Amino acid sequence: MSKNPEFVKFDKVDKSYDGKVLVVKDLQLDIAEGEFITMLGPSGSGKTTCLMMLAGFETPTHGEILLDGNIISNIPPHKRGIGMVFQNYALFPHMTVYENLAFPLRVRKVEKDEIDKKVDKALSMVSLSGFETRMPAQLSGGQQQRVAVARALVFDPAVVLMDEPLGALDKNLRESMQYEIKHIHESIGVTVVYVTHDQSEALTMSNRIAVFNDGKVQQLSNPAELYEKPVNSFVAEFIGENNTFNGEVIDIAKDKCKVKLENSEILANPISVKSKGEKTTVSLRPERALINPTDKMDNMFTGKIEEVIYHGDHTRVRLNLLGSSEFILKVPNSTSNLELKVSQDINIGWNSVDARALDPK
Amino acid sequence: MSSETKQILTTDGIPLEVSLKKAEKKNKIKAFLLVAPLLLFLIITYIFPIGEMFTRSIDDKMITNMLPKTFKEMESWDGQELPPEEVFSAFYYDYKALVEKQEHGKLGQRLNKEKNGFNSTTKRLFRNIKRKKIDESISIKEQIIKVHPNWNKVEYWQAIKRTAPPYTLAKYLKGMDMYYAPDGSIVQVDEDRRIHRILWLRTLEIAFFVTLFCFLMGYPIAHLLATLPMKYSNLLMICVLLPFWTSLLVRTASWMILLQQQGVVNDFFVMIGLVADDNRPEMMYNKVGTYVAMTQILLPFMVLPLYSVMKTISPSLMRAGKSLGGTPFVAFWKVYFPLTIPGIGAGCLLVFILAIGYYITPALVGGASGTLISNQIAFHMKQTLDWSFASAMGLMLLTGVLVIYWIYNKLVGVDNIKLG
Question: Could you give all domains of chain B from N- to C-terminal order, each with its CATH number?
Answer without folding.
Answer: 1-59 (no CATH), 64-165 (no CATH), 195-416 (1.10.3720.10)
